[in-house]
Amino acid sequence: MDYGDTACRIEWDQLPGEVRAGIERQLGSEVVRADGQRGGFSHGMAARLLLDNGSRVFVKTVRGDDELAGMYRREADAAGRLPAAVPAARCRFEVELAGWFVAAFEDVEGARPRLAEPGESADVLRTVGLLAEVLTPSPLRDVPEFEAELGSAFAGWRGFAEMGVPEDLDDWSVRNLDRLAELAAGWAVGAQGETLLHADLSPGNMVRRPNGEVVVVDWAWACRGAAWVDLVLLAPYFEDCGVDADQIIAGHPVTKDVDPAAIDAFVCALAGYWAVGSRQPPPPRSPHLRAHQARFARLARDWLRRRVGWA
Which residues face 51 on adjacent strands? Predict the structure, then answer.
């Protein structure tokens, strides 16, 4: 699946002139070209900027009072404090300009990794292992725990069971709704840990350089949890490319000693999270988000169904 054209973002030339001028002052050089980035599901500006001194920088900006501004600030803060061993784009600066929040990051030359390609998949999985190694224990002690971030959102099946089953819910989920709610209720026990997680790993948040190095970007959801959580969050993207997620899980160091029941509970909660999200009203400036969530709700559900073997 192509994740490259999902966002309805403002463009560089649509920013107020004083914001553009302020960014150029911070950079110490004028912008000669701005290549807008269309991936992701947020509406702030995101662009690779070519400067008249020949250098490049990646800049994100959103109005300071926008509902997403807090996540932009959080991303910049985390990206500015990651250890040098982490393959990530560092935040060069963050600043408030004329009512807009601006964050500038190192520009990374490359492309999104293709998970269906064995070589590129191996590069991604090696990077997941590296992250678990260098980010345990978490070097950022002030980030929240994963459970605190998503505890209520991961109770989707229980919400369906208590508040009413959606008319379009598939037959398997309806038949097993109580079992799904019970299984998902225990997800947090196994997911606790002291690893710094990216918590939003996807091909869209990775850039693979020509030498095979995979750089992880967009640390807006950085939090603490078990080292295996990031791999399981990424696994449905392998499914989306026709790669068996269980083969990925079974063959990776971060999951080799993890209780399969803990992974079952987490996948179950993740499927419920996407099932609920996909049925919410579409955000006016992110028209593709609900379709994405619906697709991944089905992928996670089908993966879980194979794992648990329920009729």
Answer: 31
Residue 188: in which H helix or E strand, if any?
A: helix 187-191
- What number of other Cβ atoms are within 10 A of residue 217's Cβ? 19
DSSP element (H, E) containing 58: strand 56-63
Instruction: Residue 300: count other Cβ atoms within 10 Å of its Cβ.
Output: 25
Nearest to 44 by CA among 22, 23, 83, 72: 72
pLDDT at 1: 46
Buried b (16+ CB within 10 A) or exposed e, 45-80: bbbbbbbeeeeebbbbbbbeebebbebbbbbbbbbe
> What does the pLDDT look like over 206-255, one tens digit per residue?
999 999 999 999 999 999 999 999 999 999 999 999 999 999 999 999 99
* pTM score: 0.94
Give the separation between CA 250 and CA 125, rounded to whole angstroms: 12
Report d(CA 29, CA 294) in Å as an integer.
44
DSSP state of 88: B
Is there a cis peptide before residue 137, judged by omega within 30 degrees of 0?
A: yes
Does position 40 have pLDDT exceeding 80, yes or no?
Answer: no
